[in-house]
Amino acid sequence: MYVCNCFGVTEAQVRKHAEDGACTPRQIASACKAGTDCGSCVRRIQALLGRGACPRRDLADQGEPVLAELEEAA
Q: Where does this protein have coiled-coil stretches (predicted)?
């Protein structure tokens, strides 16, 4: 299923980028441009990331600094 129609980005692609370390919509946008044109997909990307698409988010919730470091670098 497509998440971003402007750039033809699928849910599977967003999940793959999340597995590779992109844990915020901004990081997903940097990886594949999703969310950078009309913006209508940003909420869907946020929902995917919030549902476990980003394995590092669990570490951050446990007090690990991984997510904070990624967001600071962005």
A: none
User: Any idea which residue has 């915020």 for tokens?
Assistant: 24
pTM for the whole structure: 0.70
Note down pLDDT in tens along the chain; length 74 residues.
999 999 999 999 999 999 999 999 999 999 999 999 999 999 999 999 987 667 655 544 444 444 455 455 55
What is the set of domains in the chain, with CATH numbers? 2-73 (1.10.10.1100)
Asked if residues 24 and 49 have their Cβ atoms less than 8 Å apart, the reply is yes
C-alpha separations of 36 from 1, 39, 56, 69, 70 in Å: 19, 6, 23, 23, 19
Distance, CA of 74 to CA of 71 (rounded, Å): 5
